[in-house]
């Protein structure tokens, strides 16, 4: 099934070494290697049949390669978010121009203060959107998001986060009712109706795989997750994201897919 035609990514900047890290993973990102991995990521996406818009690096924002957070792009509308991390908040202004290449102005909505929201906290399942209430996404942000989505015929529900950075750090939908879950999400009542694939703790990072038009991109180095995804019948592609992992970034964070 072809669902996504377009992808937006942003090149990592050399300031990526100063990206926010919660300390789960060791090390400081190596810029050269991050760039190489970014090229490989783009190549994998191209193989999935999408066109890729590559935005230039923005040295003012160390985390700006994680374009998933300042915007949410749906079939009907685009939503410019209001990132809860102060050092990332300005990224929302820098994504607008790229988004307006694909959406008319009257279909571009905004989350505004005191609401905060980051796209990593939003998971699309058909016409329903799960949104994580996290350190980055607050109650008012969720209220505004719900109102916007309902205007376009979508539904939205909140998921409380206790342990991870973003909702999609620990749970990702692979379409066809299949959902990868790790840690705190394994027992969430709202996810029990899906075919849950439980990720072992030592491979928790790989809960963040992405489905792109029936191919699933899996991070390198997670054999149990790779096998589980292949057993579900998906074609898989592997991309090494070691430099992004050091600052809590995964496959979904690195692109907007729509
Ligand atoms: C941050 O803490 O904001 C970045 N270092 C990582 C962002 C990851 N983005 C995502 O999960 N959508």
Secondary structure layout plus pairing:
Elements: E1 6-10, H1 31-47, E2 51-55, E3 71-73, E4 78-80, H2 91-99, E5 108-110, E6 122-125, E7 128-133, H3 139-151, E8 155-160, H4 167-170, E9 171-173, E10 178-181, E11 195-198, E12 210-212, E13 215-219, H5 223-231, E14 235-239, H6 242-245, E15 256-257
Parallel strand pairs: 1-2, 4-5, 7-8, 10-11, 13-14
Antiparallel strand pairs: 1-15, 3-4, 6-7, 9-10, 12-13
This protein binds citrulline.
Residues 19-20, 63, 66, 68-69, 85, 88, 120, 165-166, 168-169, 247-250, 252-253 line the site of citrulline.
User: Level of helix content?
Assistant: 10-25%
Strand order in space, largest sheet: 2-1-15
Order of helices and strands: EHEEEHEEEHEHEEEEEHEHE
Sequence stretches where pLDDT stays below 50 over 5 or more residues:
none
Structural class: alpha/beta
- How would you sum up the major sheet? 3 strands, mixed
Strand fraction: 15-25%
- Calculate the mean pLDDT score and round it: 98
- Annotation, overall tally of beta strands: 15
Named once each, the bound ligands are: citrulline
What is the overall silhouette? globular
Rg from alpha-carbon coordinates:
17 Å
Straight-line N-to-C gap: 13 Å
Number of helices: 6
